[in-house]
Design brief:
The chain is mainly alpha-helical. Helix content is 72%, strand content 0%.
C-alpha cells in the first residue's frame, strides 16, 4: 500500500471501522456465541501457528516478506480475522480486573502513539533492524519483537497515565457550569 493517506491502516477511518466491527459483533453476539469456544480457540491457534511457521520457514525470502507485509499490517484481512477471533474468545471469559480495565483504557493511546514518526522511524524501526541484523534465529527474533511490543505498551500506558493526571488537574480549574 503506497497510498500515503492510508498509512497501512493506521488512520482514523480504519480505527472507526474496528469500532463498527466491534459494534456489529456486539449486536449479533447471540449468533457469534453459537460458535463453540473450543472451535474458536482451535481456529485462533491454528491460524497463528500457521502464520508463525510459514514466516519462520521463509524468514529471509520473498514468501516471508509477503507474509510479514500482508499479515501484520493494520488493514490486513488476516489481522482482522485474527483480532475478531481473539475478541470472541476473550469476550467469553468472565472476570473483573481493575488492572486490565486500566490497560484497556490506554488502548487508544497505544494505537495513536506507537505509529508516530519519531517513535516508529527513530526508535522502533532502528531497534528492530538492529536485532534483525544480529543474526538471531527466528525464535530469538520473535521473542525480541515480543519484548519490544511489551516495552512500547508499557511506555504508552505511562504516557496515558501522565496525560490523565494532567487532564484531572486541568479540569479542576474549569467551572462546572461550562459542562452543562
Amino acid at each position: 500500500m503506497n497510498e500515503p493517506t492510508l498509512h497501512n491502516g493506521k488512520n482514523i477511518v480504519y480505527f472507526s471501522f474496528l469500532y463498527v466491527l466491534g459494534d456489529f459483533i456486539k449486536k449479533n453476539e447471540t449468533a457469534f456465541f453459537k460458535i463453540k469456544t473450543p472451535i474458536l480457540v482451535l481456529s485462533y491457534f491454528i491460524m497463528n501457528l500457521l502464520l508463525v511457521f510459514l514466516f519462520c520457514r521463509n524468514f529471509n525470502n520473498a514468501i516471508g516478506t509477503a507474509i510479514w507485509k500482508f499479515s501484520y499490517i493494520y488493514c490486513s484481512p488476516i489481522l482482522i480475522i485474527n483480532a475478531t477471533l481473539l475478541f470472541l474468545i476473550i469476550s467469553r471469559i468472565r472476570f473483573h480486573s481493575s488492572w486490565i480495565n486500566y490497560l484497556s483504557g490506554s488502548a487508544f493511546t497505544m494505537y495513536i502513539l506507537h505509529h508516530q514518526y519519531v517513535i516508529l522511524y527513530k526508535l522502533i524501526g532502528p531497534t528492530v533492524e538492529y536485532f534483525k541484523s544480529k543474526s538471531l534465529n527466528t525464535c530469538e527474533f520473535l521473542i525480541v519483537l515480543l519484548l519490544i511490543t511489551i516495552v512500547i505498551m508499557l511506555g504508552c500506558v505511562f504516557v496515558d497515565f501522565f496525560f490523565k493526571k494532567i487532564k484531572r488537574e486541568m479540569i479542576q480549574f474549569i467551572p462546572s457550569e461550562k459542562f452543562i
